Amino acid sequence: MEVNEKCDVYSFGVLALEIIMGKHPGDLISLFLSSSTRPMANDMLLIDVLDERPQQVMKPMDEEVMLITRLAFACLSQNPRSRPTMDQVSKMLAAGKSPFKNQLSMIRLGQLQ
């Protein structure tokens, strides 16, 4: 395996999901990598994989949570060429806008890919 920027981007995606989930996302990533379990993973609600320790995600943070989760999934793309660069990730984070207007509790993981 060649170590390059795309490996760093993948690692960022893992770290971002780990922060949002409150645990290592290995099982979730495996669900998305398997063609037999991907439909089930796509149908999971984002709210169901979030870390339960913060009792409530504050409404103003909903967009940020969706944005970071969407970026994390982009960084975890199976095809390294499809992953964004860290510069692109940085710019998207700085812009801070999620394309989703739905409530956090209504977003399915498949919508974030």
UniProtKB/TrEMBL annotation:
InterPro entries noted in UniProt: Kinase-like_dom_sf, Prot_kinase_dom, Ser-Thr/Tyr_kinase_cat_dom, Ser_Thr_Kinases_DiverseReg
Record keyword Kinase present: yes
PROSITE patterns xref list: PROTEIN_KINASE_DOM (PS50011)
Matching Pfam families: PK_Tyr_Ser-Thr (PF07714)
This protein's UniProt keywords: ATP-binding, Kinase, Nucleotide-binding, Serine/threonine-protein kinase, Transferase
Ranges of residues in domain Protein kinase: 1-101
Name this polypeptide is given: non-specific serine/threonine protein kinase
Domain of life: Eukaryota
GO MF entry, a single one: ATP binding
Reaction catalysis annotation: L-threonyl-[protein] + ATP = O-phospho-L-threonyl-[protein] + ADP + H(+); L-seryl-[protein] + ATP = O-phospho-L-seryl-[protein] + ADP + H(+)
Enzyme nomenclature, EC number: 2.7.11.1
PANTHER family with a match to the protein in the record: LEUCINE RICH REPEAT KINASE 2, MDIS1-INTERACTING RECEPTOR LIKE KINASE 2-LIKE ISOFORM X1
Organism: Trifolium subterraneum
